[in-house]
Amino acid sequence: MDSEVGMGDGEEEDAQCASCHQYCHFAAVECGCSDDRVACAAHTGALCACPPSRWRLAFRYTLAELDAQLSGVFGAATRVGALNQ
Description:
Structural class: alpha+beta
Oligomer: single chain
Number of helices: 1
Distance between the termini: 49 Å
Radius of gyration: 16 Å
CATH class: Mainly Beta
Number of strands: 4
Shape: elongated
Largest sheet: 4 strands, mixed
Helix content: 10-25%
CATH architecture: Ribbon
Strand content: 15-25%
């Protein structure tokens, strides 16, 4: 299984798992046989009949982007905590 950053590039809504219909916001498993079908990590078997070697794990963000978002959340939480003291 390959991995790639750039899942849902340009899409406004997150893809939904073909099996459980949960939103796949951070990562999803995709296959080249279908452009519109994805699966969450728990339901890869419901993705398609292709062998797993054809699937790819797609990430929405790079680790650097996630780290920047996390820093922003911690910064906001710190400011809110300071206001409540």
